[in-house]
Amino acid sequence: MNFGLIIMLVLLHCKGATTESTRKILAGMDVTLDCPFNKPDHVPLMKVTVEWGVMVDEHAVQRLVYTFQDERPMVHRVGSWVDAKSLLQGNASLHLLNVSVADEGVYCCRVIITPNTYKVSTRLEVSAKPVISLPEAVTVMEGEKRTLMCEITGFYPEQLTVTWLIQNGSQLSRGVCTGMATPNPDGTYSVSSLITVQATATESSGVVYVCHVTHRSHPGYHSKGVLLTVQ
Ligand SMILES: *[C@@H]1O[C@H](CO)[C@@H](O)[C@H](O)[C@H]1NC(C)=O
Ligand SMILES: *[C@@H]1O[C@H](CO)[C@@H](O)[C@H](O)[C@H]1NC(C)=O
Ligand SMILES: CC(=O)N[C@H]1CO[C@H](CO)[C@@H](O)[C@@H]1O
């Protein structure tokens, strides 16, 4: 069968897949997506065709990830494979190495042992953790106004919330300015948040300003603090 024909088959392939489960992982990790099927003992590998594809969302065109046909694997996404020994046992699980945010999508497995077809689809949700940059300490002159910048880079998805707090204290809203998230070439996002503080010796010296970030990549929050010293 030629390559073009495989693509045509794959375009249809996820329709009718039953259970759709969700796997949540962090970018940079390896993952295995299950695809069990019923393999009668007398059927040789030669008669088993496996196709793995991925769609960015339910309406998108499917992209091939890995195929196995006539006992020959074809790797479309570098670092993906189906174990031939597992296939013999009715397990067409897909291994993906070093997952990136570009790998997110709905993965569809189709196994054909004529006249039967088995379909499984799994949603893969990939998150990338934000990296927070903030100076550890800042010294200002009494009465001076100073803007502190919290740079948050390399996160995915785009949705992220930044707040500023006084350590062991209240949330700050005055003088805070958070920009729009901007996309990076690798599919992740970055954003900066600024806070302008007015240094008065009695109130602000020794205070830690905390840049507090909530994001899908972490069930709690990410944060970093800057110690303000007033001279
Ligand atoms: C299928 O095989 C893979 C190893 O190739 C294993 O990680 C996975 O747990 C197996 N799945 C089932 C349902 O046995
Ligand atoms: C994993 O992929 C990223 C790009 O997505 C790359 O920068 C990194 O070097 C890769 N790591 C390994 C161990 O291959
Ligand atoms: C004085 C005080 O309560 N300090 C606490 C502030 O919060 C940190 C952790 O967020 C604690 O380690 C300090 O003891």
UniProtKB/TrEMBL annotation:
Pfam families for this protein: C1-set, V-set
Entry-linked PROSITE patterns: IG_LIKE, IG_MHC
UniProt keyword terms in alphabetical order: Immunoglobulin domain, Signal
Domain Ig-like: 28-127, 130-227
Gene3D superfamilies hit by this protein: Immunoglobulins
Keyword GTP-binding tagged: no
Signal peptide positions (record): 1-19
Superkingdom as given in the UniProt entry: Eukaryota
Protein name (Swiss-Prot/TrEMBL): Ig-like domain-containing protein
Source organism of this protein record: Esox lucius
